[in-house]
Write a structure and sequence with these properties.
17 strands, UDP-N-acetylmuramoyl-L-alanine:D-glutamate ligase, single chain, 16 helices, 6-stranded mixed sheet, Protein-Tyrosine Phosphatase, Chain A, 8-stranded mixed sheet, 2 domains, 451 residues
Length: 451
């Protein structure tokens, strides 16, 4: 298969695949010799902050001299973002080659009467196979959905299980209460393996504490580590623990929690403190409180549920007051859009809103967003865009050069924004290259009478 053919195959799987607990995933990996059991792993679950916590941990491990494998989801622009070795994306050629190997074994299983593996099971298998092939020293693995029945949960004995904050998301699959959702996430806790838990409500912590007692797993709460926030603004975060100060360019209150969680996990793994410090400093994570330079500037934040929106709302009230700020928003129909918009629009300093429809067929239209948000608009000017590209253009035209555009509501929106910016960057680079061509300079000189 070519890269594009492998993508078409993966995206077509959901039409005929079905979940069967973890049995299918186990059968599939047995055909490759269970490579996931041969590489030490850090396993990360949670509702918000999983990806950033994984990024912190991968960077700290790499700084300490380990060859790392990193598996995260979803991707923002390219599928290759999901599978990285030493933070370098898998090449399209290797992606297609590994997909061929996994497809061959998946179809062999299906021929034996076993249900075809799911989309996410296939991608997870590809990551494990690739990390084994590349002889990584350690893997940082993010769950896709939940934990107990997630494809990644075939990991038997992780170095540490990490659970970030829990909030309402995917309630039809995971449960309608926070303890129920926490119960699914707690499924990654393995007997005797340490577990680190980030900032959570008492009723959620109780679920993790009970699971840890059942499995004999030492539990460490990141919140209990004495910490002092020295800085938390647009320039980033400085956090002091003991004699060490950890600095990151990432910003936002929830990134403080993610950093604390990652640091607590790094201590359990045994990463030296100096490597932790340097790894945190070097961490980058696109689409999460990511600033894009320009006039106006853009802030990309993948807040896609009520808790994420509430935290972004608090941050905007603290840091954007008095600035000419525009909200560029979009979301999928399956999300609790009403709660997300209420959190983003209640007493926040956004002067105007651009509602854009994403390419995804389940994306809502600008008019639908406007109707949902009508009680929270507060007299703001509202624009409706038929596409994300049109939304970016509209936001730029109506925001002062010294202002900013905050793009949020969905990681898919962030992905489309990044793709549009990448496309525009390539077009500008091509235009400049064309101007520099010798023939063009000669013709310009002739027109100006220089030749």
């Amino acid at each position: 298969m070519t890269y594009q053919e492998s993508i078409a195959w993966l995206e077509g799987v959901s039409l005929y695949s079905q979940k069967d607990g973890l049995d299918n995933m186990k059968r599939l990996m047995e055909r490759f010799g269970d490579p996931q059991d041969k590489i030490p792993a850090v396993h990360v679950a949670g509702t918000n902050g999983k990806g950033t916590t994984c990024a912190f941990l991968e960077s700290m491990l790499r700084t300490s001299g380990k060859k790392t494998g990193l598996f995260t989801s979803p991707h923002l622009v390219r599928y290759t973002e999901r599978i990285r070795v030493d933070n370098k994306e898998i090449s399209e050629e290797d992606f297609a080659r590994i997909a061929d190997r996994v497809r061959e074994q998946a179809e062999a299983l299906q021929a034996e009467g076993v249900p075809h593996p799911t989309f996410f099971q296939l991608l997870t298998a590809m990551a494990f196979v690739y990390f084994s092939e590349q002889q990584t020293d350690v893997m940082v693995i993010e769950t896709g959905l939940g934990g107990r029945l997630d494809a990644t949960n075939i990991l038997k004995k992780p170095l540490v299980s990490v659970i970030t904050s829990i909030s309402y998301d995917h309630v039809k699959v995971l449960g309608s209460t926070l303890p129920a959702i926490a119960g699914e996430k707690a499924g990654i806790i393995k007997p005797g393996c340490p577990v680190v838990v980030g900032h959570n409500k008492p009723e959620v912590m109780a679920v993790f504490e009970e699971k840890a007692r059942e499995t004999g797993s030492p539990l460490y709460a990141a919140d209990t580590v004495p910490s002092q926030v020295l800085q938390n603004d647009e320039a980033g975060i400085s956090l002091q623990q003991g004699n060490m100060i950890y600095r990151t360019a990432l910003c936002g209150d929830y990134q403080v929690d993610n950093l604390k969680t990652a640091l607590a996990a790094a201590v359990r793994i045994g990463i030296p403190f100096r490597d932790m410090q340097q790894g945190v400093r070097k961490t980058q994570w696109i689409g999460r409180m990511q600033w894009i330079a320009g006039r106006p500037r853009m802030l990309l934040e993948g807040a896609h549920n009520e808790e994420g929106a509430e935290r972004l709302g608090v941050w905007s009230r603290e840091h954007l007051a008095g600035k000419d700020a525009t909200l560029l928003f979009s979301a999928l129909r399956k999300k609790d859009v009403t709660s997300i918009l209420k959190a983003l629009l209640t007493d926040t300093p956004f002067a105007r809103i651009v509602f854009a429809k994403m390419q995804d067929e389940s994306g809502l239209t600008g008019e639908e967003f406007t109707e949902i948000a009508k009680d929270h608009l507060g007299g703001r000017t509202v624009f409706c865009a038929e596409s994300v590209a049109e939304g970016i253009k509209t936001a730029r035209e109506n925001t002062s050069p010294d202002g900013l555009i905050c793009c949020c509501g969905s990681l898919y929106l962030v992905g489309e924004v990044l793709a549009e910016l990448e496309k525009a960057g390539k077009a500008e680079a091509a235009r400049r290259a064309e101007k520099r061509r010798p023939g063009n300079r000669l013709r310009k000189g002739i027109r100006r009478g220089h030749v």
